[in-house]
Design brief:
Belongs to the ATP phosphoribosyltransferase family. Long subfamily. Keywords: Amino-acid biosynthesis, Chloroplast, Glycosyltransferase, Histidine biosynthesis, Plastid, Transferase, Transit peptide. It holds the Pfam family HisG_C. Catalyzes the condensation of ATP and 5-phosphoribose 1-diphosphate to form N'-(5'-phosphoribosyl)-ATP (PR-ATP). Its main location: plastid. By secondary structure, this protein is of the alpha/beta class. The protein has three domains: 107 residues, D-Maltodextrin-Binding Protein, domain 2 (3-Layer(aba) Sandwich); 102 residues, 3-Layer(aba) Sandwich (D-Maltodextrin-Binding Protein, domain 2), CATH 3.40.190.10; 81 residues, Alpha-Beta Plaits (2-Layer Sandwich), CATH 3.30.70.120. Helix content is 28%, strand content 34%. It has 13 helices and 19 strands. The strands form four sheets. The chain has a six-stranded mixed β-sheet with strand order 3-12-11-13-10-14. A six-stranded mixed β-sheet has the order 6-7-5-8-15-9, sandwiched between helices. A hairpin with a 2-residue loop joins strand 17 and strand 18. Helix 3 crosses helix 4. The protein starts with a strand and ends with a helix. 28% of the residues are buried.
Length: 396
């Protein structure tokens, strides 16, 4: 039997909220095998003054975008939007609502990432940015959550199992070895501390663990094994420094999810709410254009040649000079004996930062001169593959 401590809430006639705590015993957790138990604390909050009826949600005219309210994820999200010419204007830093002047009829709401997911599902938000780990944990695969952009290129981390480096775990280096340890029995299961009470048990079930129990913990999970309250933890890892400093280690096969920042939309909002689809399209195009241009440079040079085709052949013979779709070659005209003639051609290519110097060397080797380099801000495609996938998902 699994013991779950639950905080129940009953609405009263006033705007106050009445809470009491009770302990329940149940035989199993839904969707999990009976040998996996989860000890959790669930909290519900609401008041009659802030609750929205389904009709008020339906009638809402404004488009709402949820952004992380604090921490590194919040600052990096604002920086990305600024780079996409979508700066968030917040009159008062203490307010939870702001705007993006370039997007009409859009409200920005600063929320905790997990609340962004919940409010996308409830209809209180139309779009949101959060980590893929948060989306997966609190969205739990709900079909109403549409992944608009799955790689915003910040917030990189992974959800992983970690165990002590010492004691009975000293020679355990893989998930299969952890599962086969004879210490884990029905009476004494593997104890895992985590705040991911959906992804953790789901992963362990899929990996065939027979005897495991989960306990909820928020913050300082790394201390749980040393305190003797858990055998292992499931937590987010970025550099791994905190694990190492607490004598913990990741193990082979123990990564549950690779995560970074993502843009998510409510499928219902995209289909039913006026303007949401167009706004999503514009945000996606700006993000795609900026992210594709990141680390790319325009290289311009002059090159002597008999024809544009001959110059293009020379350029394409070099592996680092092909550009996005090939070089642009155009004649450079000068006046000689009263006539416009062309002995040089201007070439323009797009080069990634890591290949920049090599590309310049190759250009000069085939006769390029006057090489100019400038960073790119945006690269717009005819239509992004992600947008085509969204339209296909929506049946449009």
């Amino acid at each position: 039997m699994a013991s779950i401590q639950t905080i129940f809430q009953y609405p009263s006639s006033s705007t106050t909220t009445t809470l009491f705590t009770s302990s329940l015993s149940i035989f199993s957790i839904p969707t999990l095998p009976s040998y996996i138990s989860v000890k959790s604390t669930f909290t519900c909050f609401s008041s009659s003054s802030s609750s929205l009826s389904s009709s008020s949600i339906t009638d809402r005219a404004e488009i709402r975008l949820g952004l992380p309210s604090k921490g590194r994820m919040a600052s990096e999200t604002l920086e990305l939007l600024k780079d996409c010419q979508l700066s968030v204007r917040q009159v008062n830093p203490r307010q939870y609502v702001a705007e993006i002047p370039q997007l009409s009829n859009l409200e920005v709401w600063f929320q905790r990432p997990k609340d962004i997911v919940r409010k996308l599902l409830s209809g209180d938000l139309d779009l949101g940015i959060m980590g893929l780990d948060t989306l997966s944990e609190f969205g739990q695969g709900d079909e109403d959550l549409i992944l608009v952009h799955d790689a915003l290129d910040y917030g990189d981390c992974h959800l992983s199992i970690a165990i002590p480096k010492y004691g009975i775990f000293e020679n355990i280096n893989s998930l299969s070895e952890l599962a086969q340890m004879p210490q884990w029995t029905k009476e004494k299961p593997l104890r895992v501390a985590t705040s991911f009470n959906y992804l953790g048990p789901k992963f362990m079930k899929e990996k065939g663990f027979e005897h495991v129990t989960f306990s909820t913990a928020d913050g300082a999970l790394e201390a749980a094994p040393a305190m003797g309250i858990a055998d292992a933890i499931v937590d987010l890892v970025s550099s791994g420094t905190t694990l190492r400093e607490n004598n913990l280690k990741e193990i082979e096969g123990g990564i549950i999810l690779e995560s970074q920042a993502v843009l998510v939309a409510s499928k219902k909002s995209l289909i039913q709410r006026e303007g949401v689809l167009d706004t999503t399209h514009e945000i996606l195009e700006r993000l795609e254009a900026h992210l594709r241009a990141a680390g790319q440079f325009t290289v311009t040079a002059n090159m002597r040649g008999g024809s544009a085709e001959e110059v293009a052949e020379r350029i394409l013979s070099q592996p680092s000079l092909s550009g996005l779709q090939g070089p642009t070659v155009s004649p450079v005209f000068c006046k000689r004996d009263g006539k416009a003639t062309s002995e040089y051609y201007a070439i323009v290519i797009c080069v990634p930062k890591k290949a920049l110097y090599k590309s310049v060397q190759q250009l000069r080797a085939i006769g390029g001169s006057g090489v100019l380099i400038s960073p790119l801000t945006y690269i717009f495609d005819e239509q992004t593959p992600r947008w085509r996938d969204i339209l296909l998902t929506l049946g449009l």
